[in-house]
Amino acid sequence: MPGTARFLEDDVRLARLRQSHHDWILNLFKGTFDESYHKRLQRIGHAHVRIGLAAHYVYAAMNFIRERLRLIIDDEVDSELQANALRAVNKILDLNLDVIARTYHEEELRRVFLTSKLDDAVIRFAHRFTFGLNMTLVIGLLGLSLGAVVMIVIDVVSVFSGQFEKGLIGALGSLLVLWLVIELLEAEIDRLRGGAFKLHLFVGVGLVALIREELISSISHKDITVQALYIGGILVLGFISWLLSRSEGKNKVRPR
Amino acid sequence: MITFRDIKDHYRFSEPEVETLRHLLPRVEPHVGQITDDFYIF
């Protein structure tokens, strides 16, 4: 059988296996079928499982032995005794197969159980880790919102310290950032409560950043090319944001 | 936990059948070497 060749390459091992099978066949006819015989069969099963021999080959081998023993009974046993002899041989072979095959099933169950326990542990860890990451994100967003408030305060201070135009435009940009951080924070809280992921908000981050840059660059009298690039970026991101908002709006389940 | 006694009972493996197997030993024994050899070229 091709699937068993890799177990039979070593001569020493092969000789040992031949002797084991020889003894096993003889023991079928020695009439000592006690608990120690049972344990010996279990050890045979575990040995097959340990070396990774598929159960299929055990069934095929048993069929081979059964057929050879049947031929011996045909040739060697008086015809009136053959039926009883065959029945007895079939039963002891079935008993052997039962015990050996059960070790395979028990081993498979043990592996499934171990895999399932490992899966549970990994999933539990992933849940906790994701929860930790989400909390970090929420705390980060809270920090950003505080930072945006500080920026507004600084811009307002600039207004009253004589830099009226710069302070006012800067405050507008900072308000935009604060609005966006609030949106992100609400979206994250909504997502933690089972809501959908809102992709358009992340495009909004880029959009607001560009709008703020454009507001500041307009009063800083930056090069027209740079301003054109900002405006182009705003238009592109604005269009993408609009498309995403439309798409996410369509996917919402409307209440009846 | 199922014992070997239980397994034998489930198969109705009786003492007369054990005796039948014992009587088969001298008939089978001379062929076992050949069966084992054939098994490894199977």
What attributes characterize this protein structure?
heterodimer, A: 256 residues, mainly alpha, B: 42 residues, 2 helices
Distance between the termini of chain A: 66 Å
What is the percent of helical residues of chain A?
over 70%
Query: Unreliable runs of chain A, pLDDT <50, ≥5 residues?
Result: none
Oligomeric state of this protein: heterodimer
Brief overview:
Chain A is an all-alpha fold. Chain B has one domain. Helix content of chain B is 76%, strand content 0%.
Molecular structure report:
The complex is a heterodimer of chains A (256) and B (42). Chain A is mainly α. Helices cover 85% and strands 0% of the residues of chain A. Chain A has seven helices and no strands. Chain B has one domain. Chain B starts with a helix and ends with a helix.
SSE map:
The complex is a heterodimer of chains A (256) and B (42).
Chain A: H1 11-27, H2 35-51, H3 55-76, H4 79-160, H5 164-192, H6 199-220, H7 224-251
Chain B: H1 4-10, H2 15-39
